[in-house]
Amino acid sequence: MNTMTLAPEPPARKGRPVFSLGVVAAHGLLFWAAMEFGVLERAMASAAPLMVQIVSSAPPAAPQPEPLVRPKVAPPPLASVPVPEVPVMREAPPEALRAVAAAPAPAATPAPAPVAPPAPPATRQVPPSALRYLVEPPVALPLASRRLHESGTVVLHVVVDVRGHPRSVTLRRSSGFARLDEQALGAMRQARFLPCTENGQPFECESDAPIIYELES
Hints:
Number of helices: 4
Domain TonB C-terminal: 126-217
Strand content: 15-25%
Protein name: Energy transducer TonB
CATH class of the domain at 126-213: Alpha Beta
Distance between the termini: 225 Å
Family: Belongs to the TonB family.
Shape: elongated
Oligomer: single chain
Structural class: alpha+beta
Membrane topology: Single-pass membrane protein
Radius of gyration: 77 Å
CATH topology of the domain at 126-213: TolA/TonB C-terminal domain
Strand order of the largest sheet: 1-8-3-4
Keywords: Cell inner membrane, Cell membrane, Membrane, Protein transport, Transmembrane, Transmembrane helix, Transport
């Protein structure tokens, strides 16, 4: 069995305990600082995801529209418009005003005379034989005149127009009986004549036409 021989410890030096305490204190500060730094680093590492999550949960900012840039257009050149000269009204001298006031007013233009309608064609007198009937007058002795034995001749004046119609029928000479005169006037107004003509041209004519009333025997 081997026996270990321990060397004797060297004698302690003065002032060493003070150096050892200072080293230990420095090591303690370093260790404490390292521990604090580790805790702070872990705290920052654990807080970083939370900050990222909070920042990422915020809604994205809406993009700002770009300002609309309008192209600059030069205004069209203004056309030169000639300005008409306005005549300056000058006050007339008193002599001119007196001459105008003394001038006679123009005479009024007379209105044109109305145009008279054309005169109807002149009526010509013809003999009774020139009157020719197309439709004879319906002559009939009235019943009362027959009972009273009234008879006679009625002379009528007839104006015949260019169409052969009796335009006017008047009593020229009475028969002496009013019933016979009235019947003769009504019958002649229903008659129609051949128009009076000259060289093929019709004209208005007038003449006397007798109507005879006789009693039957």
